Amino acid sequence: MAWTEKLKSGRYRGGYRDASGAKRYLGRTYTQRAEAKRLAAIEEDKIRRPGAVDPKAGRATWGQWREEWFPARRIESGTARGDESRMRTHVAPYWDEVPLADITRERVQQWIDELSRTSKTAPTKRGSGKAVGGGQRRKESGKALSPTTVKKVYRLFAKSLADAVVAGKIGSSPCVDIELPKAAPPDEFFLTREQFARLRSAADDELLRMILDLGVGTGMRWGEIVGLHRSRVDIGQRRIVVQEVYELGADHIKPYPKGKSRRGIPITDELAAALDEWMAAHPAVRCRAQHRDKKRCDGALLLPSKAGTPIGYSNFRRDRWNPAVQEAALDGLTPHDLRHTYASWLLQRGVTIEQVSELLGHSTITMTQRYAHLADTQWDAVRGALSGAGFEGARHSHHGGAPHLPHVADDADHGKVVDLASRRRSTG
Fold it and tell me: Region entry Disordered: which residue ranges (predicted)?
């Protein structure tokens, strides 16, 4: 409740308490006691209202907020490592000494534009001509950040400000309608069935062939394949359940990402038979991989190393994958391309993009839209509607200057030929 205090001057100052119970006073005094109390009551209501922001909060620098916010986040260890690098290299040097109240939409947009042009920049203090941190403002002449990296850096910074709003540090986030650089869609390479057969023939050991079959037969990521436990393979139901994932950078197995249910993937009779034969020929070895919960795992990996741990990616690429890829004349092909192949084959055979998205474990269907152009069957209704509409006669009676281009039959697999060595990579 607001109150007033009479000063020696005979004037009144209004007082009130904030949400924490601390005393606050109006910034000026009044001749009328009632007026001082009324205005103090208004200020008390403002500052104690849900969502209210402490006027002093915005005076803190973003760096001070970062020190409070960044360590308290709950995120995956792999995400944390990437964020730490982005924070250290691109975010903290630019914003650490900028007061939260001085971060405007225009300054954020300027920062994004600079990231797109140069690898490192630093904002100047007003009127000083010097960059935050004491050095002269500089623009590196090195290679600009990729659009994907710029987006990741921006999202990290924007999240910090969104959380600052929740914490009552600022009233609203300036990260609104920020124009981010647009990335060209990655070249998605997938194997034709002939290419896959050639690659499989070049595989000179059963482990590589098993991974090839799993890759194109399930679309699982590398971490899902090498983290797969035998108990998740249901031969009778012809299904694999993705419930654990091996995280390469952290070198441990973690549960399938939080917020998602277990992902069931149907498999063919042929793959089920191959898996059954594999497990019969390779007795179970207790999983000796480190699990995130630190508990002993009494299960067994489907494809363990000799030590009972997940197969090492680098050694696998060097010793098994690369020689087979070179032998099959598919230089540049990566294990992740098996996942692209799985998606493309399903779409070409009429499986809906919604179903493919679910099978791939994509968090949103937007991630699966990259494959939409492969779903050629969606245009059958259009072709049917135009069939017999007079185009055939027009084709034969063509008299214009441009020659008629005869129809070229699509390849049965709709394989897309790209330069594998120089193409842009994607990890969906």
Answer: 114-145, 392-414
